[in-house]
Design a protein that fits this description.
Number of domains: 5
Protein name: AAA family ATPase
GO molecular function, one term: DNA binding
Largest sheet: 6 strands, mixed
Oligomer: single chain
InterPro entries: DNA_helicase_UvrD/REP, P-loop_NTPase, UvrD-like_ATP-bd
Keywords: ATP-binding, Coiled coil, Helicase, Hydrolase, Nucleotide-binding
Strand content: 15-25%
Bound molecules: adenosine-5'-triphosphate
């Protein structure tokens, strides 16, 4: 009785405190909304400068407002009781009252680290760690870890479902949520690892690799804002569906400054589809492709086999192979990329041809010609014959043109890739207008590096462009300076410290640079790159990413056992050695938070029976269901019959039907009459609680229930990999059903 009333009082105490935090949040929001409205009301005073200032203010207030809105749900999640007697609340952002007294610490701040790291063995000055479990704004439960033995036995330690298990058992929505309230110690160590260098995080399915990658990005931006504000952080994932699945996590952590990109979108202006030919994907991923592209570019700098006769305003000139070869040598010696070196090539030959024209005219006029040299140069330059001859010898090229011609013209491909077999060449050849694939992106990027700027070759004035850029930059800088000054004058709001102010500016700068400019700029050098599902990357994709971060500061997360791409890695060592040698560090995650033990064990048994070496993380919980295995005659009809039972078992949760690619249309057609708009793809969308996807599409995603069709086919067919079935089996958080028209693969039944 006494215990219950004490528990109630504790809970009430927390509710009161949390109410206070929300009041503060609401006040700040109202303040920001008002400031934003004020700025918007202000008439744009004439000058460009004033308008940019107003825009910069507006952007800053919008950002802050968006941040305050995004952290509303479960704003606070922890409390530390310290040896000093102080209490410290831990939440999504830092909050202080009007007098700058700290009300809540940002989870990324150093003082919050002990919330995740302290244990009974190493208390780190913490007596008690309290989890506050909120539903929206309400504190629904509190749960204490008592670390100080002296406190044990006190009756005020409270019961309740563990915060972690509550999170793990909650229904999936098709959108990943953050884990900020329940980050585990082994995860926290990786999230807070130092910025420089390459950290590889290897972990089996469901160990929180994606979660760790996202929280690390947020942590780095917070902790190293100064270093990362202008360079930015890039987060790369495998597919668009996956990027959509994770897109809300960073905003919910109050971060908008990370550029998120699917691996197929890293070439600005190029839309890609998936590479359907496994062989082509594997070939394009090989590191040797860099040499193929290099040769392809060099082969477009051609010396003609014989003399060329060129008509310039009625006078016939001769261009010799020797002349072209010499000009090519000198142009290449500049070390500039193809399009830029072309300027030198063209200049040399135009000068030589102008000399020749002058000589000829003098000859024909018996020495009496006194035509102006600059007119003659212009005649040479504008001669059609000259233009054709120079272009044939050294064509200005875009990466798109180079690569599309390379893969559509057998003679070009053979010349650039002399070591490839006929079968390999055939696998690469395709129509000139075929859509770009993900595997083309690193080749286009390689080509862009070697070709350089087309504008230069097209004669656009470099100096003028540089001037323009300088002016833009100066404008942006001046604007920011003014924003700073005026903010200081106006005292902003009570919560903003000088540090916050710097952060806000950083966000604005990031807006101007990293987010907007970086994602549209192929040559952008990021301060840090986080790569998820990194086992899928081909050597050429690694090469591209390494170029995007010259400092080689990377967080790489993945699971070698889940590799399904034909060009992906078989070992981290093999993947990274060519780029960073031995200079990378391996961290491992060992606990599976997603899949109940009965299902996780079945997946590991299957993988082992099929000869796949997997790291088998320990499942953190047991589920309510063992895998259900059906051997049936009529596959798709059996699925239709099983659907009601599966949907009921997960009680309104999200169900994925994972089937080999060839079956997907039939499965969708069979489900359509009954389930209509409820059936989607990827991780599902609004109103969609059923998705029909291939094993590859399921990568990185998770669902309450999963039904796998024809598992043996995921192991057997020509393009299948053991990893595919392993990935599919490790997607559910509650329940797995396997339906097969043949044998159920060895190991699953146990
Ligand atoms: N500390 C944690 N607290 C609460 N939930 C967690 C925690 N760690 C992981 N999870 C949850 O476990 C699930 C699996 O996490 P995540 O998707 O990051 O794993 P993964 O290692 O990337 O998996 P896979 O390689 O199979 O795609 C997610 O629902 C995630 O929110």
């Amino acid at each position: 009785m006494h215990e219950t009333s004490q528990a109630k009082a504790e809970l009430q105490g927390e509710r009161d405190y949390v109410d206070g935090l929300y009041r503060r949040l609401d006040d700040l929001r109202a303040e920001k909304a008002e400031q934003l409205a004020d700025v918007r009301r202000t008439q744009a005073a004439g000058s460009h400068q004033n308008r940019s200032e107003r825009d910069a203010f507006a952007t800053m207030y919008e950002d802050r407002l968006a941040q305050l809105n995004a952290v509303d749900d479960r704003l606070v999640f922890g409390r530390l009781d310290l040896d000093s007697g102080n209490k410290r609340y831990i939440g999504r952002i830092g909050l202080s009252d009007e007098d700058l007294r700290q009300l809540m610490v940002d989870w990324r701040a150093p003082e919050a680290g002990t919330f995740y790291q302290a244990t009974a063995f190493e208390r780190m000055g913490v007596r008690r760690r309290r989890h506050l479990i909120l539903s929206r704004r309400d504190v629904v439960a509190i749960e204490d870890d008592v670390l100080d033995a002296d406190l044990l036995g006190d009756d005020d330690s409270l019961q309740g479902e563990g915060a972690l298990l509550a999170a793990l058992n909650s229904r999936r929505t098709g959108q990943m949520s953050d884990i900020v309230g329940t980050i585990q110690a082994e995860q926290d160590r990786i999230i807070r690892a130092p910025l420089p260098g390459v950290t590889v995080v290897q972990g089996g399915p469901g160990t929180g690799k994606t979660a760790v990658a996202l929280h690390r990005a947020a942590y780095l931006l917070y902790t190293h804002r100064d270093r990362l504000k202008s360079a930015g952080v890039l987060l790369v994932g495998p597919t668009d569906a996956f990027m959509k699945y994770i897109e809300r996590v960073l905003p919910s952590l109050g971060e908008t400054g990370v550029v998120m990109a699917g691996i197929g979108t890293l070439m600005p202006g190029i839309a890609t589809v998936q590479e359907t030919s496994e062989e082509a994907a594997a070939l394009k991923g090989r590191i040797g492709m860099a040499e193929v592209i290099r040769t392809a570019v060099a082969n477009r700098e051609r010396v003609p086999a014989e003399n060329k006769r060129l008509n310039v305003e009625g006078t016939m000139l001769t261009l010799t192979p020797r002349q072209v070869a010499r000009a090519r040598e000198r142009a290449r010696a500049t070390g500039k990329p193809h399009n830029e070196a072309r300027v030198t090539f063209v200049k040399i030959l135009l000068r030589e041809l102008t000399e020749q024209l002058l000589d000829k005219l003098e000859e024909s006029s018996g020495g009496g010609n006194n035509a102006d040299r600059s007119y003659l140069a212009e005649d040479v330059r504008s001669s059609r014959d000259v233009r054709i001859a120079l272009n044939l010898a050294w064509m200005p090229l875009t990466p798109q043109k180079l690569v599309s011609e390379l893969f559509s013209r057998p003679e070009l491909l053979r010349a650039a890739a002399p070591t490839l077999s006929d079968a390999e060449l055939a696998a690469l050849l395709r129509p000139v207008d075929a859509p770009w694939t993900e595997a083309d992106v690193p080749l286009l990027d390689e080509a862009a590096e070697l070709l350089g700027d087309l504008d230069v070759s097209a004669g656009r004035d470099t100096a003028a462009r540089e001037q323009e850029q300088k002016r833009d930059l100066a404008n942006a800088e001046r604007t920011l300076e003014n924003v700073n000054a005026s903010l200081e004058d106006s005292g902003v709001d009570g919560v903003l410290t000088a540090e916050d102010l710097a952060q806000h500016n950083a966000v604005s700068v990031t807006r101007l640079s990293a987010a907007d400019r970086a994602s549209g700029d192929r040559t952008w050098a990021y301060g840090h790159i986080v790569v998820d599902e990194a086992q899928e990357l081909s050597p050429m994709q690694w090469r591209l990413l390494m170029r995007r971060c010259p400092l080689k500061s990377f967080t790489i997360v993945g699971d070698i056992a889940q590799t399904s791409s034909a060009a992906g890695s078989r070992s981290w060592q093999q993947a990274l050695e060519p780029f960073v040698g031995e200079r990378w560090q391996l961290e491992e995650l060992t606990v599976n938070y997603r899949t109940p033990s009965q299902i996780a064990e079945a997946a590991v048994r299957m993988a082992n029976a099929a000869g796949l070496v997997v790291s088998a993380p320990k499942a953190v919980r047991e589920g309510r269901f063992s895998p259900v295995l059906d051997t049936v005659q009529d596959l798709v009809q059996s699925l239709v019959r099983a659907m009601p039972e599966e949907l009921a078992a997960i009680d309104g949760g999200l169900l994925a039907v994972i089937a080999p690619e060839r079956l997907l249309p039939d499965v969708r057609a069979a489900l359509a009459p009954e389930y209509r708009d409820r059936v989607g793809t990827g991780a599902g969308g609004p109103g969609q609680d059923i998705v029909v996807i291939s094993p590859r599409e399921s990568k990185g995603l998770e669902f309450d229930g999963v039904v796998i069709l024809e598992p043996q086919e995921m192991l057997d067919s020509a393009t299948a990999r053991v990893g595919d079935l392993y990935v599919a089996m490790t997607r559910p958080t509650q329940r797995l059903r396997v339906i097969s028209s043949g044998e159920i693969p060895a190991g699953i039944a146990g």
